[in-house]
Write a structure and sequence with these properties.
By secondary structure, this protein is α+β, with helices and mostly antiparallel strands. The protein has 32 helices and 15 strands. The longest helix has 35 residues, at 274-308.
Length: 806
């Protein structure tokens, strides 16, 4: 005799979960991620098996009896059939109020407890139709989630009626809820970032992630936009594959693809490496985000049409030129335009859209891609002119380029773009993928077109400058130059213009490297720059503008006032050389600060120290008689005050040191002047007299490092420092570059090491960035000459020891 389902029971002991546990084991085997391309098949199998297990559990919980007006339903990924290996189960026990509350609660226990015991993650609820509608009315997330409601077991009519009621409410309240939905989407994107531009993306919540597909489907159910299709669906399946692999690798139902898991996920998916994985994830995220943006625009248009329409209205078209019009926030083709006759029409439309900062309507972009004839090879001059106009259009370029890319036009015009599309950049400088950074560089270059004679070549070089950042490339500048030449030939640029752009791509890092790692006032540095631009003033101007645009696009960390000043200084030196003007002497050259330095006094017998506070710290100027070890002493005194040296320019003219240091003050000491000038001055006087007391704190710290060195021997060693000799880098001096992890007192240690072997620092260029220091030292003997080969070897050795001994 079957037990009464309304009778009170102990849910944990009456319904044995052994069968469900057996199914759990089978489920785990089926959920094992196999190979790329089987994701949808495997997810369907998992969904089917889960349904069967839940239906069997329903039969056990109800003792096989039919319960009119009661049903078990699913929401979330289980309802959609796209759950991952470790996705939670989102279940709702629906009822029409025919079963007593106590019996309904007992039935719920008989369902939920075995699921908990089986180890499955569970989100559960017991609701009537009225409760479902109330919940959806007050909670936007719940309202969107309940739209996926799907029956699992029990009375199917209950599920059907709830689904119909919720869908009706959703459509009826769409006008009121759309602004709330849009705001919630933007808030989520702001919180979780852009999937395409993140190195550790959240596959679900980020812009372009899985949850955006839920929003797309919700808009479609409200009859405000078309449902996801084509590239968006393909992208969604790709993201699901990555999420499934992430579940398998981590053993957790997580959705953030963090760095430690990327290699394993890539291997499981058959990717060549984690960069290829992130590129695929970013490309998929861009397709989803692009589809969502279009759907939200379409939903807004539908809402406005419902609000304004009294009778049939003709569309309001605002002419933009070339047969293109602005219509309801998008660029569309006019009714008399015939795309099949004009191969230049896609470029014209792109220029119009970018300048107006309006998106191309999806149908218009598709027509341009599918119906316009291909451009001939090589491109005609009008096509190159339109390309230049597009690339110089400013901020609107980014969105327009994405519209073109999503329909395949960019790949048609620039096949080399495919290799850098969505490619990640794993360093502390760049904030965007390679392709997005290149577009940003073109946008920045557009602000500098008045500074050069050929602005079209500048923006083209900005677009192509990182084209060599492809898998397996060594020197990306050289690889990019080779690829850029092929592009420029296809685009029909004359040989002279082609050679100039190739030079810019090949040398796009030369100017900033020379300016920040060499002495800008040294004739050898100026000669190296002039050689890089073939002694051509127009190419020099283009290279300077490209350098600025590249750095600005990378982010504020890559383009500081210090770097800008040094680049301007070196460019001015080179330009003066080309014009035959007298070279600006080193003593009056602009320094690493953002202003011209004070004149160096002719006679100095005591230290003169000044400090100019700024937003982050101060610029410290020290003028005093030069001596061996002065560089180390100043660095040490700054460290004793707890100041971090960000940049420094050390110069010696006629036996007088004129040193400029930019320091960062401690974060908790902003209420006071960051630099104690009096203490710094007194310290220099005492150190010059042989009194080491002012640096006692640093000496004690060094001894502690020596004593604890043995205990650190078994720890993981940091990246080894590098000391490089730069052949021909200086006139009358030996140039060494030091690259190492930055640390408290490092500059002092380097200076002391050189002082111990009686080597003078004639000039130094110091920069600290992303935890790494890049220091260039111009070294001489006390008499002022370049170091002998044995002394160079000793200098390299002691500098290495100073770095590695920390």
């Amino acid at each position: 005799m079957t037990a009464d389902p309304q009778a009170p029971i102990d849910a944990r002991t009456t319904v044995a979960p052994s069968a469900l546990r057996d199914r759990r084991l089978s489920l785990a085997g089926t959920r094992r991620h196999l190979a790329r391309g089987v994701g949808p098949v495997r997810r369907a199998a998992v969904s089917s098996l889960t349904d069967a297990s839940l239906q069997q559990l329903w039969q056990e919980a109800t003792r096989g009896r039919a319960l009119p007006g009661v049903a078990l339903a699913a929401t979330g990924s289980l309802a959609r059939g796209d759950g991952g290996p470790l996705s939670d189960l989102d279940l709702v026990l629906l009822h029409e109020g025919r079963v007593a509350a106590g019996a309904l609660a007992a039935l719920a226990d008989r369902l939920w407890y075995p699921l908990w015991d089986s180890g499955l993650g569970l989100d559960h609820a017991v609701r009537s139709l009225a409760q479902c509608r109330q919940t959806a009315s007050g909670d936007l997330v719940a309202a969107v989630g309940l739209l996926d409601l799907r029956g699992i077991a029990g009375d199917a009519e209950v599920v059907t009626s709830v689904r119909a009621a919720l869908a009706h409410d959703w459509r009826a309240n769409a006008r009121r809820r759309l602004p709330e939905l849009v705001e919630s989407v933007h808030a989520r994107h702001e919180r979780f970032g852009d999937l395409a531009q993140s190195l550790d993306p959240d596959l679900k919540e980020a812009r372009g992630g899985l949850r955006d597909l839920t929003v797309l489907r919700a808009l479609a159910m409200a009859w405000l936009a078309e449902g996801p299709r084509g590239r968006v669906v393909t992208a969604y399946e790709s993201l699901l594959d990555v999420r499934d692999a992430l579940h398998v690798v981590t053993g957790r139902g997580r959705t953030r693809l963090t760095l430690p898991d990327q290699d394993a996920v890539a291997a499981l998916l058959g990717e060549s490496d984690s960069d290829a994985l992130l590129a695929d994830v970013a490309t998929a995220g861009r397709a989803v985000a692009h589809g969502l943006d279009a759907a939200l625009r379409r939903a807004g248009q539908a809402q406005r049409a419902r609000t304004l329409r009294v009778r049939a209205r003709r569309p309001v078209l605002t002419p933009l030129g070339h047969g293109l019009h602005a219509h309801d926030g998008e660029v569309v083709l006019g009714p008399r335009v015939e795309p099949t006759r004009d191969p230049l029409l896609p470029l014209r439309a792109a220029v119009v859209a970018a300048r107006a900062q309006l998106p191309l309507a999806p149908a218009t972009a598709a027509n341009l891609a599918d119906r316009c004839p291909a451009l001939p090879t090589p491109w005609p001059q009008p096509a190159r002119e339109l390309l230049g106009d597009l690339l110089a259009s400013g901020p609107g370029l980014v969105g327009t380029w994405e519209d073109l890319d999503q329909v395949g036009l960019v790949s048609r015009w620039l096949p080399e773009w495919d290799a850098v599309r969505s490619r990640p950049q794993r360093n502390g400088i760049h904030r965007h993928t390679v392709d997005r950074h290149s577009l940003g560089a073109a946008v920045e270059a557009a602000t500098l077109v008045r500074d050069v004679a050929r602005p079209d070549l500048l923006v083209v070089a900005a677009l192509l400058h990182d084209l060599g950042k492809v898998a397996g490339a060594g020197d990306h500048s050289e690889a990019g130059a080779v690829r850029a030449r092929a592009v420029l030939e296809r685009w029909g640029y004359p040989p002279g213009e082609r050679d100039r752009v190739v030079t810019l791509v090949r040398r796009h890092l030369t100017l900033v490297e020379l300016a920040t790692r060499r002495d800008p006032g040294d004739p050898a540095t100026v000669t190296a720059l002039l050689d890089a631009v073939d002694h051509d003033p127009d190419t020099l101007a283009l290279l300077q503008a490209l350098t600025v645009a590249d750095a600005r696009a990378a982010g504020e960390k890559a383009w500081t006032p210090w770097r800008a000043t040094l680049v301007d200084q070196l460019t001015a030196q080179a330009r003066s050389r080309l014009e035959g003007a007298p070279r600006t002497p080193v003593s009056s050259a602009t320094t690493a600060t953002d202003h011209a330095p004070e004149p160096v006094p002719a006679d100095v017998d005591a230290p003169l120290v000044t400090a100019r506070p700024d937003q982050t710290g101060a610029a410290v100027t020290v003028v005093c008689p030069d001596r061996v070890g002065l560089f180390a002493d100043i660095a040490g005194l700054l460290a004793v005050q707890g100041l971090e040296v960000r940049t420094a320019l050390i110069r010696t003219v006629d036996g007088v040191a004129h040193d400029e240091w930019r320091v960062t003050a401690p974060a908790d000491d902003t209420a006071h002047d960051p630099v104690d000038v009096d203490a710094l001055t007194r310290g220099l006087v005492r150190l010059a007299a042989g009194d080491r007391t002012p640096l006692l704190a640093l000496d004690q710290r060094a001894r502690r490092r020596t004593l604890t060195g043995a205990s650190r021997a078994g720890a993981a060693a940091p990246d080894q420092a590098r000391v490089l000799v730069v052949p021909g880098g200086g006139t009358g001096a030996t140039v060494l570059e030091v690259r190492a992890s930055d640390g408290f007192g490092l500059l002092h240690d380097l200076g002391r090491a050189l002082a111990r072997i009686e080597v003078s620092v004639r000039s130094a260029h110091v920069a600290t960035y992303a935890g790494q220091t890049l220091d260039t030292f111009y070294l001489t003997t006390p008499g002022g000459g370049a170091l002998t080969p044995p002394l160079v070897a000793r200098a390299v050795s002691v500098l290495m020891d100073a770095c590695d001994g920390r």
